[in-house]
Amino acid sequence: MANEPQPAPTATPRLQIRIDWTRALIHAILILGALASAAPFLYMIMTSFKTYGDIINNNFWPWPPIGNESLQLQNYPDAITNVGFDKAWQVPLVVRYFANSIIATVASVLGIILTSVFAAYALARMDLPGKNFIFILILATLMIPPDLTLVPKVVMMFNFGWYNAYPALVVPFLASVFSIFLLRQFFMQIPKDLFDAAFIDGAGHLRYLFAIVLPLSKPALVTTALLNFIWAWDSFKWPLLVTRDSNMRVVAVGLQQFMASEGGTRVQLLMAFASMVVVPVLVFYFITQKYFKEGVITTGIKG
Amino acid sequence: MSSQAVPVSIDATRPRFFSARRWRRIRDIGLGYFLLAPALTILIVFEFFPIFFGAFISTCDWKPAAAIGAETLLDRWTGPCVKFVGLDNYVRAFADEKMWQSLLVTATYALISLPIQLGLALFFAYLLFQNVRGKETFRVIFFLPYITSSVASAAVWSFLYNPDKGLINNILIGLGVMDPEKVWKWLGEPTGIFALMARGMGMTLPDWLGGPSLALLAVIFYTTWVFLGYDMTLFLAGLGNIPAELYDAAKVDGASGWKLFRHITFPLLSPTTFFILIITVIGIFKAFNHIYVMTQGGPGDATTTTSIYIFQQLYQFNRYGYSAALSFILFIVILGLTIAQNRMAGSRVVYD
Question: Contact at 8 Å (CB) between B172 and B186?
Fold first, then answer.
């Protein structure tokens, strides 16, 4: 605010120039910051197209016009075949990792949306005995650090017979307090008059929820789905603990295991693998990014 | 739930002694609990129950169920508790030097991260708030690291930190800051940074003066990179909530630049700052993915935070009872910190 150009009639040309310098400095710093944020991704993609020789010789740009190497597109199929093969599905392990991640992510996001919409609506718009107590109980789970419940939950997976199977990757995540909270806030903003009008027309709660509330809540639903998608896709510690066979791994675990076993010697393949994990999410983010901002500001969630 | 043409229409299944209005109310209450049931069930089974079950496990010498061949249903839940040991696991934890070391690493991690992360985020948010051109584009780019898979970005950073082939050392050598013969080992360097500086000048420092390890510092830089855009977005929202009239009034009184920031922006931003502070501390106490990918807690135990330590005890050594006890101790520490933060903030945070 302090640096906004003031429409002062007495402003001399010299003052104008000084203000422009401040602007330029601000821009320079911001560009430097943006570069630092994006550089690791660019470097990852660049490295994924290099030969191993170029990497150990620190050849930053081996391609024309400086060098004469070609883009090593072969790194991608090489990465896929080098990670291993899943005999159960007769596909490369990388494909299986992605399938597992997609199955776990889609199932848990759909489940979260369903359970959260119902719970949020009941909490926002229904008059229930003990509702406040239930709401406090739900919010109280935010105080429980994930480490506290880690050991018992792993034991529970064994006891339910879910260890090393899909239910372990999905069922414990079918409720999300953040999503309930976010949707409840949104539902409460919908004017009560709308409900009263629907009620007089003879609609019950369910019909009101599906015919009026949900269509009005599209932005909130999209935000909830996107944030949960990002978190579910990122989950690593839990799948590492509750899966044993390599063909039950999700991409994050598969990537880490590949890195631990031979990432040091085949960096170009590791970077190709990492690019395959990151780039789809980046594209997805650029298309939908305005919803993320909303979600962060509304809930202040830190994954 | 059938919809009715008129609200007073009589539902055929309604018992006679309820009025239509009363019946509708009872049905709505039933529907309400029915809607809450799925989410509540999941939370009770996977959040509340595990606390009690975990407390039970922490008092046991616990063997995995498969190892003892449990038969009946009850066997599977209590059988693995091959020996009730009372508070032994806790006693052992308090005597465990590695646990204290892990708490120290976590605390160091938090204490260094907080000022760097919040300071940089506020700085960049303040710059962006000056209505610069391309504000949204900058915000979107700054936010990139937060939304990408932490395992993938940590894998990339491990390579950036590579002593011989990594981009970071290459840049430092290129700038002439680093001697190519004596490159920094970053994630592989357990020595404290002050000790390293002293060594560079040919001196030796006592251990307690060594400072945080370079490995931990490298992890902290990564964390800052991830959360900068996230914290910045929250700060930007907070800055937008400060009424413009206040600035106008202060400008009339002759305040400008730093004074405006010091006496208006900063105090009025304190609820946002406090909020980010709390979630950052919570985030650091549960930080796991990137540390495990980059260092697995090493070298030595230079980056073994308590969260990593609990995981190692469970995953590598199958010490169920012991890691359950450790997680309760960590919980008490986090709870204490949260309460302390709230007390401290009470007098300093300005709510308008």
Answer: no
- Across the interface, whether the CB atoms of A149 and B47 are under 8 A apart is answered yes
pLDDT > 90? residue A49: yes
Contacts of A281 in chain B (CB under 8 A): 147-149
What tens digit of pLDDT does each residue of A77-97 get? 988 988 888 888 889 999 999
3-state secondary structure of B267: helix
CA pair distance B261, B254, nearest whole angstrom: 13
How far is it, in rounded angstroms, from Cα A283 to Cα B337? 39
Of B42, B127, B320, the CB nearest to A155: B320
B250 Cβ under 8 Å from any chain A Cβ: no
| Nearest-CA distance B185 → chain A (Å) | 15
Which residue in B145, B149, B256 is closest to A233 by CB distance? B149
Rounded Cα gap, residues B45 and A155, in angstroms: 13
- CB B122, CB B273: distance < 8 Å: yes
Six-digit token pair at A210? 């599906």
Question: Chain A within 8 Å of B170 (Cβ-Cβ)?
Answer: yes
Percent of chain A at pLDDT exceeding 90: 44
Q: Does residue A118 sit in the same domain as residue A235? A: yes
| Distance of alpha carbon B92 from alpha carbon B248, whole angstroms | 61
Q: In the 8-state DSSP scheme, what is residue B213?
A: B
Q: What does the domain layout of chain B look like in residue ranges?
A: 96-316
Nearest to B285, CA basis, from B120, B105, B115, B157: B105
Nearest residue of chain B to residue A196 (CA atoms): B7
Q: Which domain covers residue A39, as residue numbers?
A: 13-74
Chain B: residue whose CA lies nearest to A127: B29
CATH of B96-316, one of 1.20.1440.20, 3.30.930.10, 1.20.1290.10, 1.10.3720.10: 1.10.3720.10
Q: What is the pLDDT of residues B288-327, one digit of tens each?
A: 999 999 999 889 889 999 999 999 999 999 899 999 999 9
Which residue do the tokens 């490995």 mark? B215
